[in-house]
Amino acid sequence: MASTSALGLKDPSLVRTQAYIGGKWVDAKEGGTIKVTNPATEEELGTIPEMGLAETKEAIEAAATAFKTWSKTTAKHRHDILKKFFGLMQEHQDDLARLITLENGKPLAEAKGEHAYSASFIEWFAEEAVRTYGETIPSPFPNIRNVVIKQPIGVVSILTPWNFPSAMITRKLGAALAAGCTAVIKPPAETPFSALALVELATRAGVPPGVINVVTTQANISEVGREMCENVAVKKVSFTGSTPVAKMLYGLAAGTLKKVSIEAGGNAPFIVFDDADIDAAVAGAIICKFRGTGQTCVCANRIYVQSSVYADFASRLAEKVAAFKVGNGLDKDTTHGPLIHDRAVEKVERHVEDALAKGAQLVHGGKRLPGAGSFFAPTVLADVPADALVNAEETFGPLAALTRFETEEEVLRLANATSVGLAGYFFSRDVGRVWRVAEALEVGMVGTNTGVISQAVIPFGGIKESGLGREGGHGIEEYMNTKYIAFGL
């Protein structure tokens, strides 16, 4: 195992190689470990415990015990602890960003951006903690007074993906802590160190033992996930990941009718109309498609361009993509890092080969890059047919697939012809079209003349098979019960 000092952190104690249960850093009962590697170099960063059912039950029990006191704390008390947590995240921002780059691969500048996004959730929910207002409702009866209050729901199971190792933790955990809930977190085995570092800082900020628990696993993920969804002490499940896994977890949680929030797969359309500012549309496509090397749930996956501006847009996009510098995220000149593992590379390869076999034209890239690490060249394909795999599946990689269209009606039919509906984007300077298309797109979030939509303050989530509930701006409601009290006079 690499030593913590070898990771180059100013505060090496932020690198935690144990899980966290009931206020203690612990190893797996059976002694198993999981290797964590840098996807850019394939070097081992360290190990984490391979935990199972016994540790998961222990973590849930610890959270249930802690809930009895944490749920009774004042909103101001939770606000103050979360503000300290936010301050510690800011103090250690360089180390936290470096951890993201080491385990996820994204360039350091982008990792710093994720850190800022991650910290913004803790700041936002610190303020939301003191704004969990109830209400009074006028009664039709003179001797009754109606009062509605909000109460924390209980123990929360949090399951997160590897593409945003820090932000996907804080978006859920911040809301849970602010509401007065306790949590059991299962971070991804690929990127656990960011989650564990956050728990270390939360502990330093004053979060009591048992309020946050972390169970790490890889081989035992099925039994751990099942317990996190079925255990009767758990009252809420929050998951971000693929739609097939979301459906499985939703089914497990249904047995006890738990509250569930799910942010599942996307297949975002990105539409460029003939009246668009093409430079702005290209810039929007670059950030929207290639952020995280294409590994975000709100990435543009299907790019539709109106025929009269198709050639212009394609050439400008390809020119920008050709200037990318692919490499180790710690290198200052790197603009785009590796994919998370070889399976991700293989999926991009499969999508490219399928599109080319069906008549698409290769404009740039299109191949795995040689050497160590899971690298695939940023790719632009033109004239991608409607029946290509990339239009049916989320690529989750650096592949921009361009398809031409003729009319607004045609592109809306194409954009909405999918079972998921997380995000959608379009560029147009026609104010009437802006309203029509924004309302017609079957997604939970729309970017109009922008490729950036993610913020702590907005309700983040999708429709159709992209999930249930909202995180971020309205997210604290997902962690609270609404109770009505009738007062007789």
UniProtKB/TrEMBL annotation:
Keywords in alphabetical order: Oxidoreductase
Active site: 263
Cellular component terms per the entry's GO annotation: cytoplasm
Reaction catalyzed: succinate semialdehyde + NADP(+) + H2O = succinate + NADPH + 2 H(+); succinate semialdehyde + NAD(+) + H2O = succinate + NADH + 2 H(+)
Enzyme Commission no: 1.2.1.16
Pathway info: Amino-acid degradation; 4-aminobutanoate degradation
A single GO BP: gamma-aminobutyric acid catabolic process
Aldehyde dehydrogenase domain segment(s): 25-485
Ranges in coiled-coil conformation: none
Top-tier EC class: oxidoreductase
Alphabetical list of SUPFAM superfamilies matching this protein: ALDH-like
Family matches, as PROSITE patterns: ALDEHYDE_DEHYDR_GLU
MF terms in GO: succinate-semialdehyde dehydrogenase (NAD+) activity; succinate-semialdehyde dehydrogenase (NADP+) activity
Membership in a protein family: Belongs to the aldehyde dehydrogenase family.
Protein name per its UniProtKB record: Succinate-semialdehyde dehydrogenase
